[in-house]
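Recall from the previous lesson that a structure prediction takes nothing but the amino acid sequence as input. Here we apply that procedure to Glycosyltransferase RgtA/B/C/D-like domain-containing protein from Hymenobacter cellulosivorans. The sequence below is the only information supplied.
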Amino acid sequence: MTQKVSWPLLNRLAFGLAVLLRWAHELAMPQLTRDMQTQTESAVNLLRGHGVSVARVNWQDLSQPIFEPLNLWPPGYAWLMAGLLQISPSVLLATQLMHWAGLLGLLLAWWYLLKPLRPSMVPWAPAAFFLFWGLSNAPFHLLFGTDLLALAPYCGGLALLLHLLTRPAAVRRQSAGYAAALAMSSLGFAACLMRFAYYPLAFFLPLALLLFGWRWRPPLRRPALAALLWLTLLVASLVLYQARVAGDAYYLTQFYTQLATEPANRATLGLYWHHLRLFDPVFYHSLFSNELDFSRLPQGQLVRMGAVWLVSGLVTVLLAVGLSREWRAARHRGRIWPTRRLLFYALALATALLSAGLLVAFSLRYPAALVGWFANAYWTYVADTRYFLPVFISISAVVLVLVLARPPRLPAPVRLLGLSVLGASLLLSLVTRDRRTIQLVFQQPNFSIDKVPGQPADVRRLDSLLRTAGAGQPVLFGRNYYNKRVEIAARLAGHLILDADSLFAHQPLRTSRPVLMLFDLNPNAPASPAVVEFLRQHRAQPQLGLPTLGAQILRLEIRPKSP
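The prediction returns the following tokens.
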């Protein structure tokens, strides 16, 4: 009796600890990426009545900025952020809350996703499963706002799908499952609101339900058809929004490129088979973070290549042996309906194949982009690690379930290999990134370099100025140097960043009515004669000194030129 009571309690405590560990990791090392900044800008403009858009400078009339609809992402993140900004005193706090909510939703989804499998795993399996995810860098490395917030509802939909397929007979007689099927499609659509890449995954949910209902359980056919119709209506409304409001769905209707000689709408279509040579090592990255630094080792690149091939081979053996044994065990019992574990493996691996297949299709179809921020400056979809997040989650989960299965489905030597790979993954996480998390979690959160003593006060003063400047309208924010923290604050307030070179290149400045400009002047270096003359001409006045940020904000007004 003691064992029956203690293991469920232990598993719940371990789940709570895993959530806290992931939250602590996000608090210590928050990600405020360019993608999230841009979507937050569009949320600010939404609150100002300009829709989900990004403001651009109108050089023909500075007083009438151009609001371009945001087409790089669906509007879901901007809608959520706009709601949070109405109650949150800080953009950065709202961003952190979004991350925490996404992590909690993702882990809760997997708690319920694994629930039908618990009788076929060791009693302490949930504790081991979630503590591994709570401590390990992989498969959670490179989590960003929309990646996390899309994966969480999709996994929730996957949990409902597995629930519908594994319901006991008594429950099936009481309910046809319409509510769960419609909720499943709604969660799939929520993922589509965050990322375009979840369109095929969202439709996989009702189509898989329909397939299993048609083949094995006829009572599931009608709920599956209702769920498919509901999702089709929801996605059609989103497609209509993208076409009529945003103009297009960038990553689906155009190719991402930064080639100066090749506009995105003129990318040459073809079959670029050589791009597959850049395929991310997904089996390796499902268990080992891509942040491991091999460069400090002698022949570090060769060591990394050896580790990738070794881990990938071991994971392939684990999957091949474990899944073949699961299949033979189900056939040996003469089951026509798949076992619960086989259903789980099928759903997880189908998710991985669909995600990878979409990236392969895009990579084969479009030329590579030459971008400075990517390794070797040669980018294509299958080369970008973070795009494989659903694949990493699926493979990691399948490996954990195989290792924790009861009775064991892996031969003892293979199971030992699996435990060794998981142990090595966890050990490397503990001595690298998790060690830094422990060092930082009890300090002030590192929100965009706000850790220098006295700096938070300056950041608050800067944010207060930017929130109130211009009575809620976009303000021109000029600068004669690059200050990352000031730029982040200005962009998150929805203002328009202008470099001094751009200002001087468009002289004389045109405006139909007076325009407010805040100018960030570098106090640590003398201004050029052109900047001095510009500030004198427009009678710039000191507005705010920020010594810890190394910035001096001036206020000036650009007036219409007399005819």
